[in-house]
Amino acid sequence: MAEVVHAAGALLWRDGPEFALIHRPRYDDWSFPKGKVDPGEHVLRAAVREIEEETGIVARLGHRLPTSTYPVGERTKHVDYWAARPVAFSAFTPNHEVDELVWLPAAEAEERLSYGHDVDLLHEFLRGPSRTSPLVILRHASAGKKHEWRDADELRPLDATGRREAAALAGLLHSYGFLQVISSATARCLETVLPYARFARTSIGTDAAFTVGDTGPERAMERLLSLNGAPTIVCTHGEIVSALVTGLCRELGEKVPDDPSLHKSEFWVAHLAEDSLASLERHSPLERHSP
């Protein structure tokens, strides 16, 4: 079988709308920012890193766009794409890999792009909502074995694996920008989101509606819908995750994933646009590339 090269990139856009295109002198082509995922690197981090390396722009990811798969010589290239918005600019510095950066409206961008799969990506973006808001549904990280914990269950902390997962989650969740944090009122959930809260310099709110033993599917779903599309992380328990994902999809008239559950430390990201679901993606903090 042909070797698969995994890469990540973004359709980077700003108000207008205008789209960022880069020119690579090696290939004399125009495309969207993208690049290979480094060994052991998470695809979310790769997408944000490649945008900054190729454009000098710090960006935050929006909704998922279709994955592009195409042959490159004897290999197959698999590129995961997101819509993305700039949050910080620095002066673009031409180099041997990227010597030009331009911002163009859609019609001019389509004319300038060198490859059909990039044009298809642009068309897909234009068909959907541009502005979306992330809602992260996160299952707490590894917290040992419940039957081995002798004290009150709400005090059960993360174990060594869980602490590593929580640390990895901080940077990944920051890929989506500033998010308010709501957690189950248990130690294992609070500890899972604490590294992100410290990294983002925000507070953590606890809510019984997402706390196992204090809630049920209907109450949890009602509270989730009350967030009204605000960019949010909800850290909760395996018993609640499936009900939230299933309920959200049904509320918005979308197909429920075949398996809406999560393993510990995994998360769903629902990208919301008014009363619609622009995309739904699932990640693990330790995965190397997205499913």
SSE blueprint and pairings:
Elements: E1 4-14, E2 18-24, E3 29-31, E4 34-36, H1 43-55, E5 57-72, E6 75-89, E7 100-105, H2 106-112, H3 116-127, E8 133-139, H4 160-174, E9 180-183, H5 187-200, E10 204-206, H6 217-225, E11 232-236, H7 238-251, E12 267-273, E13 276-283
Parallel strand pairs: 1-6, 8-11, 9-10, 9-11
Antiparallel strand pairs: 1-2, 1-4, 2-3, 2-7, 5-6, 8-12, 12-13
Helix pairs in contact: 4-5, 6-7
Features:
single chain; 291 residues; alpha/beta; seven-stranded mixed sheet; six-stranded mixed sheet; 29% helix; 33% strand; elongated
Structure description:
With 291 residues, this protein is of the alpha/beta class. The chain is 29% helix and 33% strand. It has seven helices and 13 strands. It has helices at residues 43-55, 106-112, 116-127, 160-174, 187-200, 217-225, 238-251; strands spanning 4-14, 18-24, 29-31, 34-36, 57-72, 75-89, 100-105, 133-139, 180-183, 204-206, 232-236, 267-273, 276-283. The strands form two sheets. Strands 1, 2, 3, 4, 5, 6 and 7 form a seven-stranded mixed beta sheet that branches. Helix 4 runs parallel beside helix 5 and helix 6 packs across helix 7. It is elongated, with a radius of gyration of 20 Å. It starts with a strand and ends in an 8-residue tail after the last strand. The model has no long low-confidence stretch (mean pLDDT 93).
Question: What's the Cα radius of gyration?
Answer: 20 Å
> Structural class per helix/strand content?
alpha/beta
Biggest β-sheet description: 7 strands, mixed
How would you spell out the order of helices and strands? EEEEHEEEHHEHEHEHEHEE
> What is the count of β-strands?
13
Indicate the overall shape: elongated
GO molecular function: hydrolase activity
InterPro entries: His_Pase_superF_clade-1, His_PPase_superfam, Nudix_hydrolase, NUDIX_hydrolase-like_dom_sf, NUDIX_hydrolase_CS, NUDIX_hydrolase_dom, Nudix_hydrolase_domain
Keywords: Hydrolase
Domain Nudix hydrolase: 3-126
